[in-house]
Write a structure and sequence with these properties.
seven-stranded parallel beta sheet; 223 residues; alpha/beta; two-stranded parallel ribbon; single chain; 18% strand
Length: 223
């Protein structure tokens, strides 16, 4: 039997980016979400009665804000960097090291926390593949699973369709809109909307899900 979590107090990272902004928009509209704390280097640019924001320049040193992360039961981790032009050591630092540090910190402050991580399509759970991005993401997923969260979910979206009204949309996505209908027909398992992703993350922490790795088909189902 699934136990519904009706009162969600959520921490969101990456809300000044395309994915995090869309996830935040869904959380603001969700009745089960009571309180939201956005933690970021830059302001998300949104004001709302549910929303508080902490601007913090260094995610590798959270000591000054640790006590402000208490009182939450879910974390939607949407912070990420592009691997383009990065050596593996640097990419691992800003993907694996940063994510695990933040996860360990919020877990220390909140015993009954669920954690959602935005990974990506093609992530390599074996950590042995040729693609650097896939290996690092795979290790990040694997080690997040080992932490004693109430629940932990890894989301592997493919191509994402932005939400209407978003301010932080990558330039490439602005020109891909016309292709979305074609991709939906030719490869439906590789595309979903950011609205679906946001809703799926909320439903994962409020309702639970039978898998902790969610591919596009799972994201659509849970949304």
């Amino acid at each position: 039997m699934i136990v519904m979590q009706e009162n969600l107090n959520i921490i969101i990272t990456g809300a000044s980016g395309m994915v995090g902004e869309a996830v935040l928009m869904e959380c603001l509209q969700a009745d089960e979400v009571q309180k939201i704390l956005v933690v970021g280097r830059r302001s998300c640019g949104i004001q709302h009665t549910k929303l508080k924001e902490i601007l913090h320049p260094n995610f590798f040193d959270l000591s000054s804000i640790e006590n402000r992360l208490a009182g939450y039961n879910a974390c939607l981790f949407c912070l990420g960097v592009s691997s383009i032009g990065m050596k593996e050591v640097k990419y691992r630092k800003f993907t694996y090291d940063l994510t695990l540090l933040f996860a360990q910190t919020v877990l220390k402050e909140n015993n009954e926390m669920s954690f959602c991580y935005i990974s990506g399509a093609g992530t390599d759970s074996s950590e042995m593949g040729r693609q650097m991005l896939a290996r690092v993401k795979g290790k990040t997923e694997n080690d997040l699973k080992k932490l004693p969260f109430k629940a932990e979910y890894n989301f592997r979206p493919g191509l994402l369709i932005p939400t209407a009204g978003q301010k932080h949309v990558l330039i490439a996505y602005k020109y891909l809109g016309w292709m979305a209908s074609i991709i939906k027909i030719l490869s439906p398992s590789s595309i979903c909307t950011l609205r679906q992703l946001g809703k799926a993350m909320i439903h994962a922490v409020s309702r639970g899900y039978e898998k902790n790795i969610l591919e596009v088909k799972d994201i659509k189902k849970l949304a």
